[in-house]
């Protein structure tokens, strides 16, 4: 694969005939709290639900709450557990619900956020979820996927001396009991993913028809004024040979209606939550927008080309 900057990827995206239908997702039952960085809808006890990050506009003390589908929007389901976490994610492994999110760590005196860790839960349904693993301190965007051979792929996102501002690693475990901080820390880094001054991570993973992995993630950068720019991306990953296709951007903030932002430096932020593949080569992309809202986008299925081409 070829390492490309956000600017280069945006130019390539603009050359495509992109047709996007944007729909704001409305949430009820949370008063004046923002709901963003959502998952795609999933089934819990035969009912369709979404997990969302819920917090006040001027705070990062978030809860993950679950919302059930109503006729025109999504309503907070008070019968379901809540979690003191940010940025929820879900998958299924061996027919079991796997849920997780980011736990912030605060300084005891000043109550400033000084670090964070990813926490993992498993169970037959939301109210049966039990904590079974934690990631290393300082690491977000750890994602799991059940592979075709029933082993489990683990995508990581180290930062600092090993990962710089944030890059992607990958390893394989035999079962969920093997997931621990040491395994996560020792994951091999993917080659040539992001430029040194930029960063990114994995948000959700799909097994494709050719048994490769379709990765939904994000790429991000700062501009000269310190503003953040986040774009949803996809790429294909051959987990057997540890090879990746080129990254591609699949949407940008300017294609959505104007709206509020948590802070001025977060206006140009789209944070991938999940994607549902539909018929007729379409897909629904679920996003957090500007750390204040949530949207569903109808887009061309970004994984089709990975299934129909020899990318490696």
Overview of the structural elements:
The protein is mainly beta and 312 residues long. It has a single domain (6-308), classed as 5 Propeller (Tachylectin-2, Chain A), CATH 2.115.10.20. The protein has helices at 6-14, 181-185, 304-308; strands spanning 21-24, 27-28, 34-36, 42-44, 47-55, 63-69, 74-76, 86-93, 96-106, 113-123, 130-134, 143-146, 152-156, 169-173, 188-189, 199-207, 213-222, 228-238, 243-244, 248-249, 268-277, 282-289, 293-300. The radius of gyration is 18 Å and the shape is globular. The mean pLDDT is 95. The strands form 4 sheets. Strands 1, 16, 17, 18, 19, 20, 21, 22 and 23 form a 9-stranded mixed sheet that branches. Strands 2, 3, 4, 5, 6 and 7 form a 6-stranded mixed sheet that branches. A hairpin with a 6-residue loop joins β9 and β10. 6% of the residues lie in helices and 46% in strands.
Under CATH at level 1, the class stands as: Mainly Beta
Using the 3D structure, state the CATH architecture.
5 Propeller
Give the helices and strands as they follow along the chain: HEEEEEEEEEEEEEEHEEEEEEEEEH
The low-confidence runs, each spanning 5 or more residues with pLDDT under 50, are none
Summed up, the helix count is 3
The tally of strands reads 23
Total domain modules: 1
Could you describe the largest sheet, including whether it forms a barrel? 9 strands, mixed
What proportion of the residues is helical, as a percent range? under 10%
The CATH homologous superfamily is termed Glycosyl hydrolase domain, family 43
- Give the structural class: mainly beta
- Using the alpha-carbon principal axes, give the shape: globular
CATH structural fold name: Tachylectin-2, Chain A
Radius of gyration: 18 Å
Tell me what portion of residues adopts beta-strand conformation. over 45%
Through-space gap between termini: 9 Å
> Overall pLDDT, averaged?
95
